């Protein structure tokens, strides 16, 4: 496991509260800007592998867009699992409704794992990440 | 999942919501910690942090009205008693939460 | 002695205080923890609450009197006890 840091992205390219996905050494990584401090986590949600850069970042907390699993980006810790889906007040056609219920049931049983974090450094306006040193 | 980490996260999210509504976390630390812990358990069970002191009706529309913080759905009632039903939140000027009785809407001139 | 029964939630600290109040005053009571009950019982309980125009727990019945919310003074007064404070 090398600690080799690679330039991931220009610091200016990730606004405070924002996230950007990059590929480093074959790994998909998301760089997060938490009020000026940069963190790097694996791109795949610890629940069902959705791209976390399409979620939301609030403080240190990243919420996945797919089923709302939440993670602490500093530690990678999974804080909560998926939220059961809501299909609104309307009744869907029977087969479709049953399909959704089945998927919802399966989805709820899939464990949410904590996500890998990668060490970062800020140097000369660049966010550096060590992709081989992930937890 | 770690209960303490989840409580911290819930605390962070809730604070931002209840402040603008005129509420704050109860100064009763023991009650606050207990209720947050119950919410983490309920979230683990149901996927959503429900109020530990109100019943789930298994009717989505109604159950969404007791997702914490449920203040917006019970505004008049909670403003009248200066606290939310379970007491996790109280009005911002409350210093002695023990003095706030748990009164239902009918007993404060509502409903 | 008046019959005391209540509907409570196992996750609610006020419901615990309510049970403790009656236990401390040596008043026997029945209770059902709504959240631990089966669906049919839950439906029955909610029907009773709706009929009483209530939607909160603890839901305490002392003879014919219904008291919603943790209200030790009212429990004491309904039972004719001295002093309501825990």
Quick recap of the structure?
The complex is a heterotrimer of chains A (135), B (111) and C (86). With 111 residues, chain B is mainly alpha-helical.
Strand content of chain A: 25-35%
Topology order of chain B in helix (H) and strand (E) letters? HEHHHE
Count of helical stretches of chain A: 1
| Integer-rounded radius of gyration of chain A | 17 Å
Write down how many β-strands of chain B occur, each being a DSSP E stretch of 2 or more residues: 2
Poorly predicted runs of 5 or more residues of chain A: none
> Helical segment tally of chain B?
4
Q: Low-confidence segments of chain B, ≥5 residues, pLDDT <50?
A: none
Q: So, the CATH homologous superfamily of chain A?
A: Rieske [2Fe-2S] iron-sulphur domain
CATH topology of chain B: Ferredoxin Thioredoxin Reductase
Beta strands of chain A, count:
11
Strand order of the largest sheet of chain A: 2-3-4-9
Tally the structural domains of chain B: 1
Rg calc of chain B: 14 Å
Distance between the termini of chain B: 41 Å
What value does the average pLDDT of chain A take? 93
Structural summary, described in words:
The complex is a heterotrimer of chains A (135), B (111) and C (86). Chain A has 135 residues and is mainly beta. Chain A contains 1 helix and 11 strands; from the N terminus they run E-E-E-E-E-E-E-E-H-E-E-E. Helix content of chain A is 12%, strand content 35%. In chain A, the strands form 3 sheets. In chain A, strands 2-3-4-9 form a 4-stranded antiparallel sheet, with no helix packed on it. Chain B has 111 residues and is mainly alpha-helical. Chain B has one domain: Ferredoxin thioredoxin reductase catalytic beta subunit (Ferredoxin Thioredoxin Reductase), CATH 3.90.460. In chain B, 41% of the residues lie in helices and 5% in strands. Chain B has a two-stranded antiparallel ribbon with strand order 1-2. In chain B, 36% of the residues are buried. Chain C has a domain of 57 residues. Chain C has 3 helices and 4 strands, in the order βαβαββα. A 4-stranded mixed sheet of chain C has the order 2-1-3-4, covered by helices on one side. Chain C starts with a strand and ends in a 7-residue tail after the last helix. The model of chain C has no long low-confidence stretch (mean pLDDT 93). The interface between A and B is medium-sized, with 18 and 14 residues.
């Amino acid at each position: 496991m090398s600690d080799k840091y690679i330039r991931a992205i220009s610091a200016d390219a990730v606004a405070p509260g924002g996230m950007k996905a990059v590929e480093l050494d074959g790994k998909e990584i998301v760089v997060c800007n938490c009020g000026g401090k940069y963190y790097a986590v694996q791109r795949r949600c610890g629940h069902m592998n959705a791209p976390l850069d399409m979620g939301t970042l609030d403080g240190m907390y990243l919420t996945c867009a797919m089923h709302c699993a939440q993670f602490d980006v500093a530690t990678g810790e999974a804080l909560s699992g998926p939220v059961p889906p809501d299909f609104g007040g309307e009744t869907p056609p029977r087969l479709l409704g049953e399909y959704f219920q089945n998927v919802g049931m399966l989805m709820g049983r899939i464990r949410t794992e904590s996500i890998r974090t990668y060490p970062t450094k800020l140097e000369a306006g660049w966010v550096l990440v060590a992709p081989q040193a992930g937890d | 999942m770690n209960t303490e980490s989840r409580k911290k996260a819930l605390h962070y999210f809730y604070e931002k919501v209840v402040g603008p509504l005129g509420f704050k976390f109860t100064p009763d630390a023991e009650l606050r910690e207990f209720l947050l812990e119950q919410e983490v358990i309920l979230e683990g069970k149901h996927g959503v942090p429900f109020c530990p002191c109100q019943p789930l009706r298994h009717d989505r529309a109604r159950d969404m009205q007791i997702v914490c913080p449920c203040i917006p759905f019970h505004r008049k009632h909670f403003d009248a008693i200066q606290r939310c039903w379970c007491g996790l939140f109280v009005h911002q000027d409350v210093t002695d939460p023990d003095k706030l009785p748990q009164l239902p809407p009918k007993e404060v001139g509502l409903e | 002695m008046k019959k005391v029964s209540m509907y409570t939630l196992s996750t609610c600290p006020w419901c615990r205080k309510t049970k403790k109040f009656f236990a401390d005053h040596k008043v026997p009571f029945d209770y059902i923890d709504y959240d631990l009950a089966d669906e049919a019982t839950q439906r029955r309980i909610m029907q009773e609450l709706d009929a009483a125009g209530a939607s909160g727990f603890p839901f305490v019945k002392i003879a014919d009197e219904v008291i919603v919310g943790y209200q030790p003074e009212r429990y004491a007064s309904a039972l004719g006890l001295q002093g309501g404070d825990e």
